[in-house]
Amino acid sequence: MASQDIIARSATTTPPPSIRQQEEVAKLIDTTKCIGCKACQVACSEWNELRDEVGHSYGTYDNPHDLSAETWTLMRFTEHENTDGNLEWLIRKDGCMHCADPGCLKACPSPGAIIKHANGIVDFNQDHCIGCGYCITGCPFNIPRISQKDHKAYKCTLCSDRVAVGLEPACVKTCPTGAIVFGSKEDMKEHAAERIVDLKSRGFDNAGLYDPDGVGGTHVMYVLHHADSPKLYAGLPDQPVISPLVGLWKGVSKPLALLAMGAAVLAGFFHYVRIGPQRVEEDEHPAPPDTSVHVVDPAVHVFDPGQPGAQGEERP
Amino acid sequence: MNDKPILRYNANERTNHWIVAILFIFAGLSGLALFHPALFWLSHLFGGGPWTRILHPFLGVAMFVFFLGLVFRFWRANFISGNDRLWLRRIDRVMRNEEEGVPPIGKYNPGQKLLFWTLLICMLILLLSGIVIWRAWFSQYFDIGAIRLATLLHALAAFVLVLSIIVHIYAGIWIKGSVSAMLHGWVSRAWAKKHHELWYREVTREDPPGPRTSKKG
To answer: If you ran DSSP here, which 8-state letter would residue A219 be given?
Structure first.
């Protein structure tokens, strides 16, 4: 994507290019249509040339076990018993949510290592990534992963390379049931609304769209049968926000701290200018060594007639 | 009474102090590079962002280890005692270079003692929080809430540490004779008497008594 399209940039305090008006895009994942075939995982791996190591089974259908630097999207399977005592198999395609207010971008200390495009895609630039992992600290969804090979952070790019040339993301193209669709965010919301009407008519009264306000909305949205309880879906946060600790760490406190450090240096300088250094004054030097008498028994009264006042001197 | 200078810091103490000081400069500059975007350019001093990220924790751990050396050498002399509270109440006079009403103090003045304990607390927080956020080795053992808290505490302790060291360095510039005390170890008797009179009396006790006229009751 062109550099004019970068509308937010990590560790940058001046305004980014903002003359372009672009329509926001979104990927809509309909969990109610997902059959858990993992074709999206394969497509992601193929398009992005990623080959994760073969891991171990932990007794669930999740495969691999977790997101990694080489696994940018992952089906998470949850067995949920509903109020009627029936089993529901909730399958959620996990991956970057492309937040409008990205916690990773807020936390990143390296200028330009995380960027947000005008169409809403949040992308990592590994060339500028320093591998500190602050993006993981900032992310409300636990998405970025640091590669153990190169110590750079990786995550779903929403196939920004494909989207830039007018293609849909690889996972969308491959999905056999149409559970993943891609388009303008407005169109995706409209499509979701139709799906939700349909789901409600089939008895899913709590069906709804997951597009959380706490992070300014996301550019990956879910249709959920149980939108009243997103955490059922393998811990999808109910009310995701950038942690207040991260907000405090990256917010107004740091410019104030810098100001305080600068003020301390200036205060020292002006203390020196106005009050000046403390030197040991010449007249404060102790008297020069007296070589006449060195050891005097306190019982012995010394009288030196040659020294004026010696006789009348009082004991301390 | 003689005007032989007094040894304030021996060679091992001076070496230990300056190793900590050099490590503080490097750990501090590499940390400030990641502290705020306005200081990211400091990462170029260390060979770029990734090298800054790699080196910073090692520099910090080394600083902590050598700082422990200073703690073991000096902790006994840093308890608040005797005239210290009165000295602190008269800090405004000290700041104005006035000596009237400022009580004599021991080897360290209460400002130095408070600095000592502040540095120790900051260093402990920095070490512990630094381990939690050391992504390459340890972060996988900690929960995200602990990592977020550690990140915040690390920045806060670093801020207090840097501010304290700014005060420490300025005090060295302000009080003439103190930098040379840490560089070559010696202070003049007049310096010791003026700035640390109780310590002066202590270290000169074994000296042959001088003429009565120079002694204060």
So the answer is: S
In whole angstroms, give the CA distance from residue A70 to residue A142.
15
Q: Are strands A114-117 and A122-124 parallel, antiparallel or unpaired?
A: antiparallel
Task: Tell me the per-residue pLDDT of B127-161, one tens digit each, with 9 for 90 and over.
Answer: 999 999 999 999 999 999 999 999 999 999 999 99
Q: What is the CA radius of gyration of chain B?
A: 21
Q: Name the nearest CA neighbour of B113 among B158, B159, B82.
A: B82
Angle subtended at Cα A268 by Cα A264 and Cα A272, rounded to the nearest 5 degrees: 165
* Long-range own/partner contacts, residues B171-178 (CB < 8 A, 24 or more apart): B171/B111, B171/B112, B173/A268, B173/A272, B173/A277, B174/A268, B174/A271, B174/A272, B174/A277, B174/A278, B175/A277, B175/A278, B176/A277, B176/A278, B176/A279, B176/A280, B177/A279, B177/A280
Contact indicator for B45, B71 with CB cutoff of 8 Å: no
Three-state DSSP class for residue B79: coil
Kindly state the tokens that stand for A66.
């977790």
CA–CA separation, B66 and A177 (whole Å):
63
Q: Which residues of B touch A303 (CB under 8 A)?
A: none
More confident residue, B206 or A77: A77
Inter-residue contact B27 to B70 (CB < 8 Å):
no
**Is the alpha carbon torsion for B89, B91, B96, B97 positive or negative?**
positive
User: What DSSP designation does A152 have?
Assistant: -
What is the separation, in whole angstroms, between the first and last Cα of chain B?
15
| pLDDT block averages, 10 residues each, chain A of length 316 | 86 87 94 96 97 91 95 96 92 98 97 95 97 97 96 97 96 97 98 97 96 97 97 96 95 94 97 94 55 57 56 46
* Tokens found for residue A150: 């190169």
Q: Is A86 exposed, middle or buried (0-12, 13-18, 19+ CB in 10 A)?
A: exposed
Q: Which amino acid is at A92?
A: R
Does residue A286 sit at the B interface (CB-CB below 8 Å)? yes
How far is residue A169 CA from its own chain's centroid? Answer: 24
Alpha helices by DSSP H, listed for chain A, are 39-47, 103-107, 134-138, 160-164, 170-174, 185-201, 244-250, 253-274
State the pTM of this model: 0.88
8 A C-beta contact, residue A47 and residue A163: no
By the CB < 8 Å criterion, does B47 face chain A?
no
Mutate to test the interface with B, among A105, A256, A271, A290 (most CBs of B within 10 A): A290
Active site residue B56: no
ipTM at complex level: 0.89
Q: Return the residue matching tokens 């790019």.
A: A157
Spatial CB neighbours of B101, under 8 Å, sequence gap ≥ 6: B90, B93
CA dist B53 → A130, A264, B48, B68, B162 (Å): 7, 27, 9, 24, 19
- Residue A171: which residues within 8 A CB-CB, separation 6 or more? A27, A40, A41, A43, A44, A73, A93, A159, A180
Decide if B53 touches A, using CB distance below 8 A.
yes
